[in-house]
Amino acid sequence: MADNFNKTDVNELGEFGLIDRLTQEFVTENPSTHKGIGDDAAVLKMGEKALLVSTDMLIEGIHFDLMYTPLKHLGYKSVVVNLSDIYAMNGQPKQITLSIAISSKYTVEALEEFYEGVFLACKNYKVDLIGGDTTSSPKGMSISVTAIGEADLEKVVYRSGAKPGDILCATGNFGAAYLGLQILEREKQIYLSNPGIQPDLENQDYIVGRQLRPEAGRQTIGYFEKHGFRPTAMIDVSDGLTSDLFHICRQSGVGAYIEEGKVPIHPDTEKMALQFNMDPITAALNGGEDYELLFSIDPSDLEHVRYMPGVFIIGEITKADDGIKLHTTGGNIHDMQAQGWNHFKNNNPSKDN
Amino acid sequence: MADNFNKTDVNELGEFGLIDRLTQEFVTENPSTHKGIGDDAAVLKMGEKALLVSTDMLIEGIHFDLMYTPLKHLGYKSVVVNLSDIYAMNGQPKQITLSIAISSKYTVEALEEFYEGVFLACKNYKVDLIGGDTTSSPKGMSISVTAIGEADLEKVVYRSGAKPGDILCATGNFGAAYLGLQILEREKQIYLSNPGIQPDLENQDYIVGRQLRPEAGRQTIGYFEKHGFRPTAMIDVSDGLTSDLFHICRQSGVGAYIEEGKVPIHPDTEKMALQFNMDPITAALNGGEDYELLFSIDPSDLEHVRYMPGVFIIGEITKADDGIKLHTTGGNIHDMQAQGWNHFKNNNPSKDN
Questions:
Q1: Residue at B178 is within a domain
Q2: What is the pTM of this model?
C-alpha cells in the first residue's frame, strides 16, 4: 500500500513534461552528437554536413482509427509526418526506417495496401526505405518511423534562433486537419448507431484529405535554398499553431504576437468550423496536425518572403517580457494559451488493461 | 464475402517471408543509401565513413512479459538488442532514438525505472539518446529503438561475404536466454495457479540474466580493430544460431557445417535443458536471443581468432551444394533446419481483437 504514495500519474505531466522529466539528467557524450533531444530532429555532425534524425510512433486508437482511415493513407501519413520534422530543420529527408506491429487479424493484402502508401510517400519525397521491423502485436497496430535527412551543418534551422523584431511566417493554412477529424468522428458515430446510413463526406474532400493524407513542406525548403536565405527559427505545426509557437518562444527566449486576421484559413475550414459551432480561428490556432511550417525570418529577408507562394506573414517575434499574444481583428490583445494535443489526457483510462 | 478470397494470412509467411514480399519491389534511389533492407543494419555512405542504422520494435505480450520483466532490465535490453545489430556490421554504435507508447496504468515512476535501464545501457556502451517519442497506448506497452553507428565504409562486414573454406566462429555461448525464458514462464504459471508460492529462481541467475539483461558484442569488435582483421561475414544471433547461420548462407550463396561438439553451451544451460527434458544442443541451435556474434573468417586470419577470448571455432563455410549440416558428436551428418522465432505463429489468434 505504501508503495502507492508519491506515485505520479502520467496524465499529470503531459507529453512534453514527461519527456523533460525523463531526459533532464541525460548528457550526450559522442562528438558526433551535435544536438540531441529538444528540436524537431536531432543533429549529428558529419564533417561539414549535418545528419538529421527524427522519429515518431503512431498507435491505433490514439493516433488513428482504422474505421475511417484507409491503410494506404495511413502508410503515406506515417512517412510524411516524419519527413515534416526533417524539413522543419531546413534539411532534405533521404531515408526512413519503418517498423510495424500488427495483430493477426490483418491479412498480407492489408499490409501491402499500407506499404503502397509508404512507397508512394517515398517516391513523392524521393526518400529510401532502408530498414525496419515487422512483428505481431496481441492487439491493434503500432507504427514507428525514423526519418534521416541531410543538410549543410551551417544551414540547419533550430527552434531556438528567433529574436525580437523577426517576422513570423507560416505556410499553407490551419485548422483543416482538425476539422477533417471532427467530420470523420461524427460520421463514425452516426454509422455506429445506424450502420445502414452511408457516411456524408461529400464536398469535404479538402479538409478530410488534410487529416488523412497530409503533405510535408518540401517546396518551402526548396524555396529557401533557391533564394539563398534561411529562417532564424522553424518548427512544423503538428501540435497546433499556438502550441508550436510556444515551443519556438520558449526555446528562443522570446515573446511573439500573431495577428488574428492574418492567420490563413481555408474557406472549407471556415464553413465547417461554423457547422460545428466553433470559431474558425480557434480551430486554426489549436487544431494541430497541419504539418505546415511556422518560421521566423530576419527583417532583412522580408523581400524574399513577400512573394513566396503559399506563405503568409502572421505576426512578429517580440521580447520575452511581452509574452505571447493574439491581436484580434476586433482590436483586442489576448494572452495565447497553448493547448495542443495531450494524448495522455485524451486517453480514456477505462479502456486500460 | 468474395472479399475473403485470395486473402493471405500473415501467419502463412512468417516474419522474413513477409518483409521479403512487402519490400521486394522497392528500389533505393539516393546516392547516400549504400545498403538498404536485408542486413543487420542499413549502411549510409558519408564520404569514406559508413553510417549504420538499425531498428527494432518490442511489443508487450509478444517480446516481453511485464509479470517477470523488471522495467529497468527492459529498458536496458531494448537498447542492447539494437546495439547488437550495429556491432554485427563491425561498427560502433553512437546514438539511439527511443519511442515508447504506454497505457495510463503506468506511473511516471515506472517510466523512470525503464529509462534508468535505458541510460545505464547508454552509459555502458557510450551511446547518446538523441530523440524519441513518448505517447499513450490504449493497452500495453510498445517500444521502438533506432540505433545509429559509425564505421569506415571499407571495414563494414555484411552477411553476404562468406566463401567456401572460411572458418565459422561464434562468441560466448548459446541457449541460455531461451532456457531463462522457459524458467520465467514456468514460474509465472506456478504463480498464476498459486500466488502464495514464491518463484524459485535460485541458482538460475546466469540463464535468467541472459534472458532479461543481455549484453552486446562490443569487445569482439574492439578485438577485430586492435588486431587489424575483420570477418568475411557476420550476424548477431537473435533468431537462433541455426536460423542466423541460414541468413549468412543464403546471402553469401554458400553452405556450412557446424560441429555439434564445438558449439559452446554454458554448464547451467546444459543442466537446465536436461531438467526441461530437452537436448542442450537443441536449445543452443534454436533458442535465440543470445545476442552473440556468429562470423566467418578467412583461413589466413586463423591465428587471430585461435586465442581470441570467448570465441569458438564451431564449423566451416562450404559450397552451396553441400547444404547446411550438423556434424554430430556421434559421427552422423544431419541437415540443419532453421526454426528461429516466428512471432506470427507464436501469437495466439484468440487473443486478437
A1: yes
A2: 0.91
